[in-house]
Amino acid sequence: MMKKIALLTALPLLLFGFSACKKVEGDNKNLDDDNLSIEEFMSVNPASHWEYKSNEGEHFIRVPKGTKQVVNEREWDFYESTEQSTMWVTPEYFAKNGDKLLMLLDLDGSQENYLEVIAYKENPVVGETFTNTHDLKFGIMNIHALIESSIYQTNATFEYQGEMLEDVTIIKNKLKAKTGVTPYIDCGDAFLYFKEGIGILKMDIDLSIMSFYEREYEDKLVDYHIAE
User: Fold this and answer.
1) pTM value?
2) What integer pLDDT is reported at residue 223 of this predicted model?
3) How do strand 100-106 and strand 89-97 relate by DSSP bridges?
4) How many domains does the chain have?
5) For residue 5, is it within any domain?
């Protein structure tokens, strides 16, 4: 669900001239050896689907393919998301690992360079935190990306077709980045709305990288079907 965001295009302009700061290792670097099926969190039945629309005019439908694929030496439940105006198909990967829901984030649009991200945790408690990190290259620069996540709310509601879905969990993600010789720079926030049994309801991203780059992106669920 996380749309590929052009965070890194502005970062090389920002990451010079700061003092040193210790690099954080994320919880996504200390996972169990084996992934499990995500079926406890959201459907893997190929007859299910989720339909989303964004504030940028996108309209896409996610469908489970009912198969597994191995990426980054781990097994994932495989989904496809199809943008309805262009019919562009994006592969998507989800899994359960311990008590965590994982997804793969395509960092550069190549569908080859993926970041394993903890998106949600079983039995969430408000205030609980977890982190995701990843090292990548931008030209000659080594950039360290950090996502600081916290359970923001567990009893939220979400309006869907005139009704209110209850027991929605909201995860707040603080986006940061640094080079080897700089402190972390705040890059914005992303809020994920999730309901077990249905799946991802909404993604709300607000990017603000100093005064160089700003962007607000939102996509939310407009229709879904969960097959038995």
Assistant:
1) 0.88
2) 98
3) antiparallel
4) 1
5) no
